[in-house]
Each structure stands twice: as structure tokens, then as C-alpha cells.
Amino acid sequence: MRGVALTGFTVYPAIDLRDGQCVRLKQGDFGRQKEYDADPVGRAREWERRGARAIHVVDLDGAKEGRPVQLDLIRKISGSVGVPLQVGGGIRALEDLRALQQAGAYRIVMGTAAVLDRDLLLRAVDEVGEALIVAVDARDGIVATHGWQQESGRNVLDLARELAEDDVGSVLYTDVSRDGMDTGAALEGTAAVAGLLPTIASGGVTGARDIIDLSNVPGIAGAIVGTALYEGRVTLEELLEATVRP
Amino acid sequence: MAAGMNVAVVDYDAGNTLSVTRALKKVGAQVDLTADPERVAAADAVVLPGVGAFGDCMRKLRERGMDQACLETFRAGKPFLGVCVALQVFFEASEESPGVKGLGILPGRVVRFDVGDLKVPHMGWNDLDLTRSHPVLDGLDGEAFYFVHSYYPEPKETADVLGTSEYGTTFCAAAGRENLAAVQFHPEKSSLAGLKLYENFLGWARGL
Q1: Which residues 5-24 of B have a C-beta within 8 angstroms of A?
Q2: Which region among A10-24, A73-87, B129-143 has the lowest average model confidence (pLDDT)?
Q3: Region of poorest pLDDT, from A31-40, A156-165, B62-71, B91-100
Q4: Is A166 a catalytic residue?
Q5: Where are the domains of chain A?
């Protein structure tokens, strides 16, 4: 890879799991599921072959149940690729963090549970350290919880500040009013959070331009891309190319 | 290939154990995942995986008597590879866990990134620049590897530094001496370059 300038920015192709298959939801709505292909392991291998440096996996069954459900599948995917998996979905207990790590997840995304339970959050930081990512889902600057179906009333930046003080390694910032809707990256909101702690952007990346914009913001460490890839609006190669600086 | 090489992977509940084991098998090693110091002593080569905090890692090693097994592995001259926080515990101490002694095979201590505007942890892919040639890192100068860490070692002896990376500062990303080599990044999740490192390790182990 000599000659390729890395910016440290990671493009994460997303694999959303439900019933052992890949799906993609529009705006996190369980009623609006779209299926893209049946085999997540093959899909993960394909992303790696095409140059992905990491893969983002969401256990949607887990997100709904409030505990990881697809552990075996995650183990299988991790064992099938030579790049790290970042995994989220329904993680609300320390045992879940351990189980996912043992299953081969290198970074673990905790959402609702961490937002609502600071004691759990502190123990999670203790347990997995840098591997912990807290998902901050926002709608109009307010934190949304429970798989986006409820709002907490908390201000996103206040929460981000608290997370930084609690030594959380990074956040996954999703503008839920945009995810799956291709209305452009939620650059401003993401940048504000990234000023407080390392941030991975999710939601609304539709093309190379979004990746260039996001990767130029200090503190934004990567972006998760799902819909745009699966619907063929942009290729992974084009997005990866956009992270390279001459 | 290194057929028949019996590699002990130290089992002390480190989160990346499964992935390290798989990568070693993929390049042809016979892997013995074990928490038994005697089986570590019987292996041709030893790998210490690791993720997480310095203090937690040392505690888990000590609880299983594996700290002594590690020291013994080094003394016995057996090829020994450390991954991620395992690099750090080969040093004497860490800012992360004041008062906790490391294995102390390599002089120096582990410090936290203090890199101004850059955010900690350093996570993602970064280039490795070799500062010394070493069989384990053969052909890997300039290759990119996957990192997730907030701390890095500052070796007292520059001769112990095998390679560096840049993140606001030039930091030690690979270190070693004699039969010991250790890397801060995760070769088991660094695609082909990572597999090459494990393959190099087996080759080195065969030759030692």
C-alpha cells in the first residue's frame, strides 16, 4: 500500500442483520425493511475484496430484543474476513460486550443502554476501553433512544460532553431524520460532536463528496455507508478513493 | 510453509484470542490455545494476544500464572510474538495503570497520546515505518495496519524499536529484542499485510 496516503478516515460498509440475512431499513423503521441479499458472510467477504478496511455490522434482531441475538453469525463473519468488525445492536449488559468481543468484534457500539444508564457506561469503558463506541442518535439536536422509536429530551452536545468526560473512546453519530433517506451527510451536527470526541458519522452519505467533506473535519474518524452502496448509487471504490489525499 | 510448528496462544481471556488463533491457523500453524504454563513451555513458539487496559491485562496474566510463563518463554529463547496491549505489557509500567508492574522484559514505560487537536484513541489504519530490519516484519515497511489504542510505549533503548507510525507524534508501533517481537496494531485484522506478519513469525520461529 506504499504511495497511498491514508488520512486515518475509515469508510465502513454496513451490514444489517435480521434473521440471518442482510437488510437495510429506511429511517430505522422496522416496518419498512428492504432485503438486499441473503448471505452476510459472502457480503462481508465481497466488501473486503473490494477494499473495505473495516465493516460495520448491526444485529437488528438484537436491537429489537435488547440483547445480541446473532452472535454465531457475527463469529462466522469475523472469521471470514481479515479486517475488523464494528458491531452494534441490543447491547445493554457487560456480558454482551464480552460475548461480542469473544465473537470477534473489535469495536462495539452501545446505544440506548449507555445513554440511559451512566453506571453501566462507566463499567463498559472499564471493560472494553477503546473498543467501546457509544451510538448517539439525534433528531433535531435531541437524543433519540430505543432503536429511534423514542426521544429522550436530552441535548446531543450535552450528552457528547458527558461521554468525553467519562472517557468514552468514540461516538457513532446518526442523524435519524436522514438515515436511509439520502438527503446528504448531516455534516454540521456531526462536526459539532466531533469537536468533543472522535466521531463516526452515519446516515445520509450518498457519494464521494460527502466522504471528502466528512474526512476534512477534524475529529471525524469515519463514516458508515449502507443504503447508497446497496442501491448502487455509489461504489465502495469511489468512496475509498475519496479518502485518499495526493 | 511452517507445517508442524506448534504455536501456543496464551489464553487469558483476551478479546482478540479467536481472531489471532484463526490467523495463525490460516498461515499453517498448529495452534494450542492454552492457559497451562507447561503447554506454553512445550510449544515451539508463543503468541500473546491482547486488547484492553494494561492493568487488566497484567492482572489476568498473573491470576493464571501466565506472567511467569511469558518470562520463561523469553528466557528460553523461544520465538515470542505480542499483539496490541501485549506489546505494552512487555515494558515496565504504564501511565494507564499506575502502580501495576509490567513484565519488564523491555526497559521503558507506556504513555498516553498527547497530540493536541488529534483525538484519542488512535483508531483505524496507519502506515508502519520500519526502523530496524526484523524477520517478523520482513517486507512490511510502509504497509498499513489496523490500530485501536490510546497508549504507546517509550522504549529506553532505541535498539528495541522495530518500527514506528505517525499520529501527531512518531510513536513506537513495533518493538522487540532477541527472540521477542511485539506490535501495537492488530495483524489478525490487517488483511494481507497482517497475514504476512504471522507467516513471517512462523518462518522466523522455524529458523530460530
Answers
A1: 15-19, 22-23
A2: A10-24
A3: A31-40
A4: no
A5: 10-241
Cell numbers that stand for B39 in this block? 503447554
Phi (first) and psi of residue A102, to 5 degrees: -65, -30
Q: B-chain residues within 8 Å CB-CB of A54? A: 124, 146
Q: Where are the domains of chain B?
A: 6-207
> pLDDT averaged over chain A?
86
What whole-number distance in Å separates Cα of residue A216 and Cα of residue B99?
A: 40
Residue B27 region by backbone torsions, left for phi larger than 0, else alpha for psi between -120 and 50, else beta? alpha
pLDDT tens track for A207-219 = 999 999 999 998 9
- Any chain A CB within 8 A of the CB of B52? yes
C-alpha cell at B68: 511467569
Q: Please state, in angstroms and rounded to a whole number, the distance separating the CA atoms of residues A240 and A242.
A: 5
Judged by CB atoms closer than 8 Å, whether chains meet at B53 and A197 is answered as no
Q: Which DSSP symbol is given to A212?
A: H
Please state, as a whole number, how many other Cβ atoms lie within 10 Å of the Cβ of residue A198. Answer: 26
For B41-74, how does the pLDDT look when each residue is reduced to its tens digit (9 = 90+)? 999 999 999 988 999 999 999 999 999 999 999 9
Q: Which architecture characterizes domain A10-241 according to CATH?
A: Alpha-Beta Barrel (3.20)
pTM given for the model? 0.90
In Å, what is the CA distance from B185 to each residue of A66, A173, B136?
32, 25, 14
Q: Is the Cβ of A76 closer than 8 Å to some Cβ of chain B?
A: no
B146 contact A CB<8A: yes
CA distance B34 to chain A (A): 15
- Cα-flanking dihedrals φ and ψ of residue A107, to 5°? -135, 140
Q: DSSP 3-state assignment of A42? A: helix
Any residues with CB less than 8 A from the CB of A212 and at least 6 apart, and which?
A242
Instruction: Tell me the shortest Cα–Cα distance from A123 to chain B, in angstroms.
Output: 13
Fold annotation for B6-207: Rossmann fold (3.40.50)
C-beta atoms of B124 and A128 within 8 A? no
Does the distance separating the beta carbons of B15 and A128 come in below 8 Å? yes
Instruction: Taking residues A126-143, report their average pLDDT.
Output: 90
